[in-house]
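pinned: reference chain
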Amino acid sequence: MKVLVTGGCGYIGSHTIVDLINNGFDVVSVDSNIRSSTQLLDGIEKITGKKVRNYKVDLCNLEDTHAVFHENRDIVGVIHFAALKTVPESVADPLFYFHNNLTSLINVLKCVKEFNIPNLVFSSSCSVYGNTTALPVVEETPLGEAQSPYARTKQMGEKIIEDYSRVNDTQSILLRYFNPVGAHPSALIGELPLGRPDNLVPVITQTAIGKIPKLTVFGHDYDTRDGSCIRDYIHVLDIANAHTKALQYLIDQKNKSNCEVFNLGTGNGVTVLEAIKAFEKISGVKLNYELGPRRPGDVIAIYANNTRAKQVLGWEPAIGIEDMMRTAWQWEVALRDRVLSN
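pinned: its C-alpha cells
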C-alpha cells in the first residue's frame, strides 16, 4: 500500500517514513525543501534499503500539487506534515505562516477530494490548547487562545479538516503532539534545522558541540517548580510509530467518526532546566547557559493525557528523557564527524 507523506524530508516526516517502510508501506514524499534537505532521504535509504522518491513541490501551488496526486492515484492515504513551524518567526511574519500552512493544506484537501483518497492523518500540535490551566490536557480540553500565529494555523487547520470531513468520505485523524525530540539510534537521520534552531534540544546539542556559544533559558520566573517552562518531550520514534498506527487504524476502518483526535505525549512534564540536567548527565558535557527573559509566544506549561491513543490506537511511548537526549547527542556528534571527514 502506497502512502503520500508531505514534508517527508523534514524531521518527523523522515522518521515516520522509516516507520511506515518497516511496517510494509510503500512511500512517496512531497517536500519543497525550503526548510529541509534531501540529506535525510539518504539516511532513510541506508536504514531501510529503500530509495524514497521526493517530489520537490511547493504545496501552495495547486497545479504542481495536483500533478503529484495524478501520478500517484493508487495511494491509500496522506500523512500531512508540510508546514512552517517556528514560533518566533510566526510572531514576526504571521502572513507568511497563514499563507503557507493553510494554503498548502487546502490544496492537499482539494486533491484528496478529487482523487478520492480515503485516509488522511494531520500533523497537529499541543499548541492548539494555548495557555491552558487544565493539566494534563485531554482531547476534550477546550482550545485556548493561540499564543502564536503558528499555533493559530494548527487550530485553523484542524477546523478546516473537521468541516471538510463532515461533508466528504475521507477519514481523518488529527494528531496533537507535544515536543518531539531525539533521533534515530543509527544517527543516520535526526533533527536538521536550517540556520539557528528555536527548539530546545537542538539548541542544547549545538551549544554542547560548540556551534552555539551560549544557551538562553527563556523565562525563569514562571509558576513552575523551578521557574522554567514545562513541556512534554517525546521521542521522535514514538511519534513516528503513532502515525503508522493511526493510518492503519483508518485503513482497518476502526474509526467511529470521520474525524478523530489523539494526543501524543508521554504524560510527563519536564522543565527546561530538568531537560538541561538530563542532557548533562548522559553526555558528560557541562552546558554554557544563562537565564534570560520570557519569549513571546511561549506557553507556560503543557503535558498530555495520552490515554486515548493508548487505548484506541494501541500506541505506547517507550523511550525516556535520557534516551531522548542520548540519541539527539549521538546525531549531533555524527553530523560533526561527517563534516570533519569531508
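why pinned: The chain has two domains: 2-182+234-264, 200-231+267-304+319-341. The chain has a mean pLDDT of 96.
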